Amino acid sequence: MRVERLSRDKIRFFLSLDDLMDRGIEKEDMWRDIPKVHELFNDMMDQAYQELGFEISGPVAVEVFALPAQGMVVVVTRGRTPSPSDLDELDGDEMYELEVTLEESDQVIFQFNDFEDLVQAAKSLSALIREGGRVYAYRGQYFLVLDTEMELKTLQQGIAVLSEYGEASTITEHVLEEYGKTIWEKDGISGILHYFS
């Protein structure tokens, strides 16, 4: 489980499928109000406090984005800080209230430390997926964005191949478009194969 600060009142967690499995939680459980999910959220908030000094009380918005075959991204945004009189009225169990929204991502985004890793990933991926993909450079790394409109088996095999060369990214394509540099805005895989094979 990784956590990063997005702003003063917003943090983002990346939960891998292994993080969920270790706690006996299925992806579908995140949609349910069960003790295991509450325990996971409390563990996340403990980690956020220890690593970032991020404390919550009062209203909290939680956005959960399911990433195909990778895990989940959880964005936590804290609302207003309650006044001391508000705190007097709360029990210990009611220190925060949650507003949860859930979304399924239709993209897989992988990041690579250098361009050569991306080239090798594209070459290995070409047996499964020869077309599609968008490529960005951002903060000294390279990103491959794939839409998930393909057979699940092909998608899972593609993710396994990409994992050998890079790692799943929690950065959204909107951030890459806005702040990164677009290298291939379409057919990135075939572009890489054309120029670097």
What is the strand arrangement across the widest sheet? 1-2-4-3-5
Low-confidence stretches: 81-98
- Please give the domain count: 2
User: How would you classify the helix and strand content by structural class?
Assistant: alpha+beta
Number of helices: 7
How many DSSP-defined strands?
10
Rounded average pLDDT: 81
Protein name: Adapter protein MecA
Subunit structure: Homodimer.
Function: Enables the recognition and targeting of unfolded and aggregated proteins to the ClpC protease or to other proteins involved in proteolysis.
Family: Belongs to the MecA family.
Summarize the structure.
The protein is an alpha+beta fold.
Describe this structure in words.
This protein is α+β, with helices and mostly antiparallel strands and 197 residues long. The chain folds into two domains: 2-104, no CATH class; 107-196, Alpha-Beta Plaits. 36% of the residues lie in helices and 32% in strands. The chain contains seven helices and ten strands. The chain has helices spanning 17-22, 35-52, 84-89, 115-125, 152-165, 173-179, 188-196, and strands at residues 2-7, 10-16, 58-67, 71-78, 96-104, 107-112, 134-138, 141-147, 167-168, 181-184. The strands form two sheets. Strands 1-2-4-3-5 form a five-stranded mixed sheet. A hairpin with a 2-residue loop joins strand 7 and strand 8 (141-147). Helix 4 packs antiparallel against helix 5 (152-165). The chain is globular and about 55 Å long. Enables the recognition and targeting of unfolded and aggregated proteins to the ClpC protease or to other proteins involved in proteolysis. It holds the Pfam family MecA.
